[in-house]
Amino acid sequence: MTMLWFMPFNVLISFIIGSILGWILLKIIKVPDILRGLVLGCCAAGNLGNILLIIIPAVCKERGSPFGDTDICNAHGLAYASLSMAIGTIYLWLYVYNMVRIAASQRSSASNLEEPKSPEKNSNLSGTTAVPMLPSSELCSKSQDHMDKLELGHQPEPNSKALITVADEKPKKLQTRVKKIVLQVKDIASKYLNLKTLFAPSTVGAILGMIVGVVAPIRKLMIGDTAPLRVIQDSTALLGDAAVPTITLIVGANLPKGLRKSDLKISVIISIIVVRFIILPFTGILVVKAAIHLGLVSGSDPLYQFILLLQFTTPPAINISTITQLFGVGESECSVIFLATYALAPVALTLWSTLYLWLVHN
């Protein structure tokens, strides 16, 4: 933990820089409001799980691997990649999910405004005179006065009425202010933040995985050849090995949807490619080199530095397509973006990985 503490900040920095670049992209290129969350998410969130779990074992198993012994490299690399996936999943569902959700809510509110009014609401236009309605506050006050009369049976004296009013005025005002503040907080939270996404299955799995890996007594129970509950680790490993190719196949199956329906501008796709495969990797080199220079990252583990650099170079996160399907917003456009970025990912990752391997050994 003392060595890996910088990784969450590194992922957060990549999200912040990607969001800034995505915001600049939205200012330069006109993007429909409904797709703003998708574009920001594709610029900010990279595939910090599946890509690393595929690349790291392949690099470690190569002959003459620059990271030393194959078994040690594979074990450490999978640990780094798993932590990266867990952190990226939490950030993704807290940030990108809410960006897409806000865009979807704006679309639904706009569609509600465009709906024609029903005949019942327009009945006053037919010439009938509408009955004036009292404000709700006046109705409540009148009904309250009526109940007070029934309970007391008589009208209180002027002096006693003044005493009751003075005694009850401050608590009622305080309760009203507290209720207004609570309602405003709930309204803001429902508009801009959905804390239920913190308990999405992938996020819960990431949190549980970190707890098992960090807490020594739980780790000794479940992980290792002599662990009493090692069957849980074996079963989870089997599911994990099957999950990576399965998810990749699902993404590939969803890609052709956008080719028939999407009308996304080519300039937007090219801009996202430039952000993810050109600008972000350059900024990643600056961030990691600055962290090593300041002593925030140890320079003795080149594999750890290599993964920190790769976190700035991956294509958009696969779960973004899941989020767009949940809200029915930008599904075809997401497919087009994924088709372009993942088609170029092998070339970009190969070139940047070659440069990263040279940097971590010099």
Automatic annotation (TrEMBL):
The keyword Transmembrane applies. It comes from the Eukaryota. The chain crosses the membrane at residues 6-26, 38-58, 78-97, 198-218, 238-256, 268-292, 304-324, 336-359. Its main location: endoplasmic reticulum. Keywords: Auxin signaling pathway, Endoplasmic reticulum, Membrane, Transmembrane, Transmembrane helix, Transport. One of its GO terms (biological process) is auxin-activated signaling pathway. It is a multi-pass membrane protein. Pfam families: Mem_trans. GO terms for cellular component: endoplasmic reticulum membrane. It is found in: Endoplasmic reticulum membrane. Belongs to the auxin efflux carrier (TC 2.A.69.2) family. Involved in cellular auxin homeostasis by regulating auxin metabolism. Regulates intracellular auxin accumulation at the endoplasmic reticulum and thus auxin availability for nuclear auxin signaling. PANTHER family: PROTEIN PIN-LIKES 1, PTHR31651. This is Auxin efflux carrier family protein. It comes from Quillaja saponaria. The lineage of its organism: Eukaryota, Viridiplantae, Streptophyta, Embryophyta, Tracheophyta.
